[in-house]
């Protein structure tokens, strides 16, 4: 029988470190956005729709780097409060198109200063080099 592996190097696991950091960062954004009835995941969906216009759920998932099933659950929540409208695509009824509503645009406009504050807090905590590295890591992971 062989000796068990020495797992001490797993304490520096990059996956674990990135997931811990992501959870801490998410908590900061969620805390700032809470007064507007938003979570950062919802805010980013609305911002993506604002920037790109109507998208199919698959297109939106790809643009966000999200799993389609997770996105579908998040969309149901923001559709329930009328921030988005989801309808069958004209060219393919099996595909659904997500459109931001005026109510969705309004909540993004109101919450934007809170998002900006969270962005500043995180940038201050990790430094501008850390923020740049995180953006670069995100772009590299999406390729």
Could you explain how this protein is built, in words?
- The protein is mainly α and 143 residues long.
- The chain has a domain at 44-122: Arc Repressor Mutant, subunit A (Orthogonal Bundle), CATH 1.10.10.10.
- It is built from 5 helices and 3 strands; from the N terminus they run ααβααββα.
- A 3-stranded antiparallel sheet has the order 1-3-2.
- Helix 1 packs antiparallel against helix 5 and helix 2 (40-52) crosses helix 5 (102-141).
- The N and C termini lie far apart (42 Å).
- The model has no long low-confidence stretch (mean pLDDT 92).
Structure summarized in a few sentences:
By secondary structure, the chain is mainly α. It is built from five helices and three strands.
Give keywords.
143 residues, mainly alpha, Arc Repressor Mutant, subunit A
């Amino acid at each position: 029988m062989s000796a068990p592996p020495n797992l001490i190097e797993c304490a520096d696991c990059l996956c674990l470190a990135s997931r811990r950091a992501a959870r801490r960062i998410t908590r900061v954004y969620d805390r700032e956005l809470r007064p507007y009835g938003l979570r950062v995941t919802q805010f980013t969906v609305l911002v993506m729709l604002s920037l790109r216009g109507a998208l199919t759920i698959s297109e939106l998932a790809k643009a966000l780097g999200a799993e389609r099933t997770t996105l579908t659950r998040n969309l149901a929540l923001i559709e329930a409060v009328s921030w988005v409208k989801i309808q069958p695509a004209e060219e393919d009824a099996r595909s659904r198109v997500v459109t931001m509503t005026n109510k969705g645009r309004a909540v993004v406009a109101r919450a934007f200063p809170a998002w900006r504050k969270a962005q500043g807090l995180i940038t201050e905590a990790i430094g501008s080099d850390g923020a740049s590295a995180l953006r670069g890591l995100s772009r590299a992971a999406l390729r």
